[in-house]
Amino acid sequence: MEFAPAAQASRPATSRSHPRCQPHHRDRLLSEQSLDPDRVIVLPCTFTPDRFSIAPKPDYLLRRYGLTPDQPVILTVARLESIDRAKGYDQILQALPQIRAAIPDVHYLLVGTGRDRSRLEQLIDRLQVRSHVTLAGFVPDAELPDHYNLCDLFAMPSQHEGFGIVYLEAIASGKPVLGGDRDGAVDALCGGELGVLVNPTDIDAIAQAIIQILQRSYAHPLLYQPQLLRQAAIDRFGFQPFQQQIANLLLEVKRRH
Question: Contact, 51 vs 142, CB < 8 A?
Fold first, then answer.
């Protein structure tokens, strides 16, 4: 039996698995090496859901960013470096004029620091969306759960994400999530069961998906049921299911030998 570890996540974590949720890395491994598909099991990263909870938008963050409680907020958490542009924040900025046309008071909050900030400032001005974007800069780890609670949608239509623990953190906060359909986000979002997957290079598709999610018209009822959404992520990526699968694998190995 072959064990294929999932790609490194963006923050330290152990591994777990839910086989039907792991097509991307498993399929890539099988296409690159001559392995028996029946002998490959992917153990992806897990996360700590206890840090994250479903809660109202924090008043102190509404004041900090000059937002109102009913204002739709899109959130991305990423390093702002040239090598991280594939996280998709450029595409969300480019989609923002189209999103604004449908949702005039929408606001995009981009959390993270890096040397790409000055280029992003220029892009924001060129797109004329300055009043609808906040580059939040560094956010202490202790405030990250509150930032998830502040948003109405976590969006990171990435192209080269290894897995994406941030998707699970947002889902554990009861938030709808949008990811790219070409990388590890496919695994983290279970092929679309836990969120929305889009072509990360298609600005129109990104804009339309965000509009529909924020207007609660996207055809995915689980997105709008925070408690069920959170529980679904825990059932698939929590540490207890991981432990159970390891136990089952060890029993299977013992049986075969």
Answer: no
- Domain hosting 109: range is 50-226
Q: How many domains does the chain have?
A: 2
Q: Are residues 7 and 134 in the same domain?
A: no
For the cut 90, the answer to whether the pLDDT of residue 167 exceeds it is yes
Co-location of 10 and 95 in the same domain: no
Supply the pTM of this predicted model: 0.84
State whether 95 and 150 are in the same domain: yes
Classify residue 26: in a domain, yes or no: yes
- Answer whether residue 96 is part of any domain: yes
The per-residue pLDDT for range 182-200, each reduced to its tens digit, is 888 999 999 999 999 999 9
| Residues ≥6 apart with Cβ < 8 Å to 130 | 124
Whose CA is closest to 132, among 102, 161, 107?
107
Sequence-ordered list of residues with C-beta below 8 angstroms from that of 132, at least 6 positions apart, any chain: 96, 100, 106, 107, 108
Question: Is 157 inside a domain boundary?
Answer: yes
